[in-house]
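Researcher: Please predict.
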Amino acid sequence: MDYPELALHIAGRWRTQTAGGQRAVVDPATEATLAQLPLASRDELAQAAESARRGFALWRAKSALERCNILRTAAQTIRDRAKTIAQVLTLEQGKPLAEALREVTLSADIVDFQAEEAKRLYGRLVPPRVEGILSQAVTRQPVGPVAAFTPWNFPANLPTRKLASALAAGCSVVIKPAEETPGTCMLLVRAFLDAGVPPDALNMVCGDPAEVSSFLIDHPAIAKVSFTGSVAVGQLLGEQAARHVKRFTGELGGHAPVIVCEDADFAFALRNSIAAKFRNAGQVCASPIRFYLPRARFGEWAEAFVQAARALRIGAGTDPATQMGPLAHARRIEDMQRFVDDAVDRGARLLCGGRRIARPGYFFEPTVIADAPDDSRVMRQEPFGPIAVLQPYDTLDEAIAAANALPYGLGAYAFTRDLQTAHRLGEALEAGMVGINHFGVSQPEMPFGGWKQSGIGQEMGAEGLLHYTELKTITVGVPA
């Protein structure tokens, strides 16, 4: 597999040489350097922001139908290039190639859906209540140039969510992908540009994350900020945006619970739980973490869960036999070890895993912990890795209370064969997305977002598009 020469797209030009220096992009499966990523200087960031200002004037002037057609062409272009994009994604991020290909094709579906929604940014007419007023209309207009920041765990899906919604609404974008995984985003940006998005309407920059985000949020050309990442960083960027009274969407971290009810099909629940927990090595914001199990069947579940976790084939994502790839970078290995050590030190039982795998690359064993105390780090903070925590419960009320106990509410899941229980759990679980008897809560047609500290606003679905618009009231009266 070949990895491309990296470039930034600034003010209508692809730039392989920039004034901000370079940093290495590393294959997490081998620790080998794939390429050098050019980094933008402050002057180049300013050029990108000003380019977005010019691009907004051009792009918003196109009709909704024109934007729809261009974005649908972009979606097809992504599909046509899916295999190449997926290979680059696997090389720089590590996930198995089959997962990468699914991510890219789903990204094209996201673009398709939002393209169609561009034609449905409806307003409404309100009957006048005052004599002499001819019409009263409420309309939606694009908010303006957007600064979009995305992490490394889904290098195709997460940039696409922001690009598709912003462009469909008529906004221009300056996107900053993670410096660990820039190649995938670069290929996506090429697809949008090749489809007909004006060059000034789509800029891509990289650099020191804190410096880039601070500069772009402060820049007067930027009207909206969209961020996906950790709660801590999201809080910081939200504060920066609020100081300038700029619109902010934050899709932040979670700590998803899974309640397995007494009447659940245990084999079905376990099979799906293993796949969801260790997908992308657990580096998923809505990944299941806390599994609440009936005490009477706790031992049975734990034994089967551990057996399935140990049986997973670990390796490079380029190997078709691989079921779980590496973590994204060395920092994740160190953090996983701290989670495990803290839990064990506080009295939790380590049922399997808990160590780095002795081979090149950032590989960590699938890890299962039981009976973790509530004050352990793994029960309070998102591990964002291949760690599952198994906890027994005695009553469903107790399980629901434990599931809702944390200040996060992105995803939550449950398994039951009882329809009444399914509806009860759907209502009672405090999360932006609840999956009953499955984990597939992220779909192009559905809004993706969290409650509590897990975020502000939504992405995808018709609701996601609305966050890139402003409301305007227009009234027209009879001239004197």
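Model: The chain has a mean pLDDT of 97.
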